[in-house]
Design a protein that fits this description.
The radius of gyration is 31 Å and the shape is elongated. By secondary structure, it is mainly alpha-helical. The termini are far apart. The protein has 21 helices and no strands. It is 71% helix and 0% strand. Among the domains are: 54 residues; 128 residues. Keywords: Membrane, Transmembrane, Transmembrane helix.
């Protein structure tokens, strides 16, 4: 009994000692952070005029000058963080002037030396800063690190650094190849990383949509998502019949956004597509085009089996001028005693209410009067007084 009590007391002493050590360690870290915060605040005061000078002369012809005094380690780190933020905010010649300033301050050579450090955290931190400064001579070493790096969150830090420093499209292609090697479907993240590059990427994405590997096709389609050049439509047209449903959907999305005029046979095919998202995207695209020639084709979608498609069609017709409004109201009146007819009429009522709160805009007033006239004419409601200019 005595022995067990003695062991318990010793264990308690060990736990108390361990807790005290932990508290001391945490307190030391806190003191260190407080000290660094004070030094950073002192830096803000000391370098305020210099940072103002940098921002004021970014558009000037002359290169930026280094501070006229020697900086200590903490001040150099604070300066690096400030310049990193500015390089992310600016582009073009302004960014290049900031990069040259980093070279003159010795920050580029400092982080190139740190990148060869044995410690992984130091190497990763150096990779991040080299990326911010767009140090092109660091690309081979960064690619080698990316090649050997395991799959974790730091992998994408290194990949983003390579993209920022990329010298040509071969470097960007190497990033994609190395990231896809991990067999993770992070296509959106890869495209986001590629967007960090100052290089033109459209031709690379166009090349990818013609690739045999579905992963490259996905990246190409996501990368082309925001392009509205008609050339993009021709590049992705064949992919609308892909056996991969996700590729098919993305291809249709790119095609619809980049086409200024949609052939009626293609519209008919897409509106009868088994994928409801494709039908919905097509209706939204037709509404944005605003050509009344598509109204009659859209009318068939008001009888779609999925209510989300019916909703998209009705909303689209309300944007198609008087012809679209008439077609919608006539369809609602024809199905007036059914659930679908009530749903369509409810959408018209909702639109009228929405427009009635924006009558101070001339275009909204015109839409309101047109829709109200059509509504009363078809549904034969009581006579209304219309607002006119």
């Amino acid at each position: 009994m005595y022995t067990n009590l003695n062991v318990a007391i010793q264990a308690l002493y060990i736990i108390i000692a361990f807790n005290l050590v932990c508290m001391a360690f945490i307190y030391a870290i806190k003191l260190r952070n407080i000290q660094r915060r004070k030094l950073f605040d002192r830096f803000q005061t000391k370098f305020k005029d210099y940072l103002t000078y940098v921002q004021a002369n970014l558009d000037g012809v002359e290169p930026l000058r280094v501070p006229p005094w020697t900086m200590n380690k903490v001040e150099m780190e604070a300066m690096q963080e400030k310049l990193n933020d500015m390089m992310e905010c600016f582009s073009g010649e302004q960014r290049h002037k900031l990069i040259r300033l980093c070279e003159d301050l010795g920050l580029v050579q400092h982080h190139l030396a740190r990148f060869n450090h044995r410690s992984y955290p130091v190497k990763l931190d150096a990779a991040y800063h080299l990326g911010c400064m767009r140090v092109k001579e660091a690309v081979p070493a960064l690619l080698e690190l990316l090649k050997e790096h395991p799959l974790n969150s730091s992998l994408f830090v290194v990949a983003r650094a390579v993209a920022k420093c990329a010298r040509n499209q071969q470097d960007l292609g190497a990033i994609v190849q190395l990231l896809l090697r991990h067999n993770k479907k992070c296509y959106e993240l890869i495209v986001d990383i590629m967007a960090e590059s100052e290089l033109e990427t459209v031709s690379l994405y166009t090349k990818y949509v013609n690739h045999e590997n579905p992963a490259y096709i996905q990246i190409g389609l996501i990368g082309m998502h925001d392009y509205t050049d008609p050339a993009a439509a021709s590049a992705v047209f064949r992919l609308m019949d892909s056996k991969h449903e996700d590729i098919q959907l993305k291809a249709v999305d790119v095609y619809l956004k980049s086409s200024r005029l949609l052939p009626k046979n293609v519209v008919s095919k897409l509106l009868s597509h088994p994928n409801l998202d494709i039908r919905r995207l097509t209706l939204e695209a037709l509404a944005n085009i605003g050509n009344t020639a598509y109204v009659e084709m859209m009318k068939t979608s008001l009888a779609d089996a999925d209510q989300r498609v019916v909703y998209a069609c009705a909303k689209g017709m309300l944007k198609m001028g008087e012809e679209g409004m008439v077609t919608l109201c006539e369809s609602a009146a024809a199905a007036q005693s059914t659930e679908r007819g009530e749903f369509l009429q409810g959408l018209v009522d909702e639109e009228l209410k929405h427009l009635s709160m924006q009558l101070h805009h001339l275009d909204k007033l015109t839409q309101y009067n047109t829709l109200m006239y059509t509504y009363d004419k078809i549904f034969r409601k009581h006579t209304r007084i219309y607002r006119v200019v």
